[in-house]
Amino acid sequence: MNPTARSPIPSHRRRLEGLDAALLELRTLVARPGYRRRLLGPLGRRVELSTVRLLQAVERADAPPSIGEVAAAVGVDPSTASRLVEQRVGEGLLERHRSPEDGRRTTLHLTDGGRALLAELKDSRHDLLAEITGGWDVVDLEALEILMSRLAEGFARLEAEAGDTAAEPHRAA
Fold first, then answer.
1. In the prediction, which pLDDT does 172 show?
2. Which of 27, 36, 93, 95 is positioned for an S-S bond with 114, CB 3.0–4.6 A?
3. Cα–Cα distance for residue pair 97/85, rounded to 1 Å
């Protein structure tokens, strides 16, 4: 194989380095306590990221998911997902139902409380994004949305190629 066939041209390489640095910085910033306080503060209660990911996985599923399907979607083992589900059921955010197709299978459903929590989080995220992008032109916002979606699709494709069947890009709500 030609070694230059895989390496991008220098200016392209610089763009990739800049993109990588920006992605790392974003990941660091959204994990910081200040951001989390701003995001979750309006809710008036403590909410773990695992709760958000679990509820979103149930919400995004095409049909009521099983614990195993939710485990795959959030990238945890089934026993961890089972514990998380049990906690969220106890908090009134999720319900378990017997599957009408297979009585041995349990499916997960958001409660009104779970849907309300996701709606509050969505509003809080949108408020923060509006503040962060306050001076941006709508054309720039549209371009960022399109490019971020393409980037997410690329990451999902890599996961799918690695055998992760739960890897599917999700549009942020």
1. 44
2. 93
3. 12
Residue 107, Cα to own-chain centre: how many angstroms? 21
Token look-up 């709760």 returns 51
C-alpha of 9 from chain center: 33
At 160 the pLDDT is 82
Q: What is the DSSP letter of 66?
A: P
How many angstroms separate the most distant Cα atoms in the chain?
Answer: 59
So what's the pLDDT on residue 50?
Answer: 87
H or E element at residue 65: none
Spell out, as residue ranges, where the chain has pLDDT lower than 70: 1-8, 164-173
Task: Retrieve residue 2's tokens.
Answer: 């030609």
Q: What is the phi/psi pair of residue 66, to 5°? A: -90, 170
Nearest Cα neighbor of 76 from 110, 47, 53, 46 is: 53
> How many angstroms separate the CA atoms of 107 and 130, rounded?
36
Q: How many residues does the chain have?
A: 173
Three-class DSSP category at 173: coil
Q: What is the mean pLDDT of the chain?
A: 88
